[in-house]
Amino acid sequence: MSSKGEKTRSDIIEAAQNLFYHQGYHFTSFSDIVDSAGILRGNIYHYFKTKDDILAAVIDQHLARFTAMLEGWEKELREPRARLIRFTEMLIGRQDDLVHYGCPVGTLTGELGKTADTHNPAKPLFDLFLQWLARQFEALGYGREADTLALHLLGRSQGITVMTHVYRDPKLLKREVTLLQGWLTGLEPPRVKAAARPARARTRSGTERPA
């Protein structure tokens, strides 16, 4: 594909991504995407045959961008706790969008989940964050609990984005982020239980010997 063709394809994906977020996947037509991308309607079929094909490309772009973002945090921040706190700061950085449109990942996944029979095509976006969060908690020493803590953090983050959007109140978001950061800051590494010592029996003389 030529550089011009790659740019056109990228413009289509970018236009679709914005439309899916702002007005929903099911309420976005091919004509909407064509108009937003600024191309002729016939040209779009050279790159995508169906709207589902465009959706797959949008999800792939989300995955690529979020993966690059998380990898960037790992390079910038050496301490896993700092990375977890950065995750919560991401919510504040998008507070205006969250107030008006909700979470781009959560809204897309929720919308597609209403019509998907078994497989939600946007589920890999949640998988990406869950697995990354679990690795950070595991690095803090929470081996068995890492998955549970990751789900807890992601669940609270998604929940507050919904409430912020419903009530159009950024103060709700800021308050919950502050609470989450306090929880993460005070989270102590799990204590390693001391190995049980072998029982010791007493001899007739009163001295101890291993059982």
UniProtKB/TrEMBL annotation:
DNA-binding region: 29-48
InterPro entries assigned: Homeodomain-like_sf (IPR009057), HTH_TetR (IPR001647), Tet_transcr_reg_TetR-rel_C_sf (IPR036271)
UniProt keyword annotations, A-Z: DNA-binding, Transcription, Transcription regulation
Family matches, as Pfam families: TetR_N
Lineage: superkingdom: Bacteria
MF terms in GO: DNA binding
PROSITE patterns recorded: HTH_TETR_2
Gene3D superfamilies for this protein: Tetracycline Repressor, domain 2
HTH tetR-type domain boundaries: 6-66
Name under which the protein is recorded: TetR family transcriptional regulator
Protein's organism: Sulfuritortus calidifontis
